[in-house]
Design a protein that fits this description.
binds 6-O-phosphono-beta-D-glucopyranose; 10-stranded mixed β-sheet; 2 domains; 6-stranded parallel β-sheet
Length: 488
Amino acid sequence: MSDQGCTMIVFGGTGDLAHRKLAPAIYNLSVEDKLPPGFSMIGVGRKQKLSSQYREELAASVSKYSPATWDENKWAALSLKLHYFAGDMRYAENYPSFKTTVETYNLESGANGNYLYYMALAPRLFTPIAENLKHHGMTCSDSGWRRLMIEKPFGSDLLSARDLNAALSTVIDEKNIYRIDHYLGKEMLQNILVLRFANSIFEPLWNERFIDHVQISAVESEGIGDRGRYYDRAGAMRDMFQSHLLQMLALTAMEPPLKADPDTIRSEKLKLLNAVQLWPGEEEKSNLVFGQYHGFRHEEDVAEHSQTETFAALKLAINNPRWQGVPFYMRTGKKLENKLAKIVIQFKNPPSLYFGDPLGGLNRDQSNLLNVLTLKVQPREGVVFQFNIKKPATIEEIVPVEMDFCQPCAFMINTPEAYERLLADAMDGDSARFSSWKEIESSWALTDAIYNEHQRSRSKLDIYEPGSTGPAAAEKLLAGDGRHWWES
Ligand code: BG6
């Protein structure tokens, strides 16, 4: 926990993100006594309202989204530190009074001139607000730090991301820009490198000699809620693949970092991302499936003939010696049967000398007799390893069984929500769990290339039923290779 104090300024303070994620995260940090001593928060929004009204609205959200820890007395202690400023921050004339307000609260709470700006609003507003902050002398100071947290998506393609980055870099130093990918704050993502490199049994097998393929899924049962305007422009690839899925891939497949410091890790992730491409060749067989749930076109703010993908499944290759010939299947989508995120490593079959072929001729169906390591990111964090044993009381029958590590059961603590951790990190000046500009640039280059391929091949958009596992073509993507998605 930082002991330096912090005034947090949330642009978009009345928006969905502030209510669903930021306010509950701040509340939980406060309950756990993890906020810096001079903490206060100023929510900024266009609507006129008093701070007292703002606090009441946030209280309703926090009790709704964090019911397990909600306590009115604890909220009362925090709520006095929450304030509201009304103004359209695109316009320079609002900045003099804004600056005075921030300085006043900062002084009152004893935050030592430390400002944490959080952009929780539409990306098109990032640049004008950042430039206004600069012109009004609010992005640098001799008496404290200035940091900028930026929500994803950072741009909407490579070009717009470059423009945004160019604009921000004239306003604030790269080291003070914290680009959020909230998946990096999830417990199991932080665990991937530990699992791989702090255990001697995994790393020797973590390559093309022993791994058949890898599956990375982040699927959701929810739809798009009231985010039609954003989502219809973004789609699953820009919303989830470019950020969360590629970060999961990078951590799973990167080379060991020489040091555990943030820059070394990011530079290994970058090398990996630069080596990723859509699985090549095979003209007759598409390695890309785009789907849309039935009913999407009737959602609010979605175009009547929208071609936006709410589901994407892809087969990727990684061009380096470790992963030669190993497919990485990735999948994300809305309105599916389950909400879960996980990484599945399927190992190659053992040489079948001992058991004859197929496996001693005893099991007709070998397709389940596989070694599979599953890293469960959510909902229940854990690691499951499937291996084969002889079925008890039989002589020759082989069956798959599981070793199942359940993280919350083992440690009996609720792991902090991703936003809790990321906010605490930014207040502490720890950028390890944030994406670097180079990673984002590389992720957009790949995402753009995949979109181009989708357009070039004129692949169709497969409509799928809400509550299903997605379009049938996504099953075929693996079935065509003699594989299947691991669903559970
Ligand atoms: C966000 C996406 O980044 O991640 C949302 O914009 C998505 O569309 C969300 O629902 C998923 O996050 P989580 O933590 O619920 O898996």
